[in-house]
Amino acid sequence: MDFWENVENELIFQGKTKKELSILTGIKLQSLHKSFERKSEVSAENAVKIASKLNTTVEYLVTGKDSKKDNELLRKYKTTIQALEEIPAAPRKNIEQMILDLSKSINVSI
């Protein structure tokens, strides 16, 4: 995915519109529409504005991955992950499925 696809996905995830993004960033709506359509390169300044207002990183919008967030999650759940690794495969799969089912039942998107 490219920058504009990642921005689009983030807007959808957050329930925001391009118009709202325009207002938040100060980037003209017409310019945003053209950028999305043409998949044009974004200036560093606008990339930072967009990432900031979407509460994400430029890295994530450019690559679709956010190593900082991933590293924070790994640190946060390190002991849980280590404990899961000690559980035999069959029960571990059940635990993983239980977590996924629970997240769906409370409308958490993964």
UniProtKB/TrEMBL annotation:
<dbReference type="InterPro" id="IPR001387">
    <property type="entry name" value="Cro/C1-type_HTH"/>
</dbReference>
<dbReference type="InterPro" id="IPR010982">
    <property type="entry name" value="Lambda_DNA-bd_dom_sf"/>
</dbReference>
<feature type="domain" description="HTH cro/C1-type">
    <location>
        <begin position="14"/>
        <end position="61"/>
    </location>
</feature>
<dbReference type="GO" id="GO:0003677">
    <property type="term" value="F:DNA binding"/>
</dbReference>
<protein>
    <submittedName>
        <fullName>Transcriptional regulator, XRE family</fullName>
    </submittedName>
</protein>
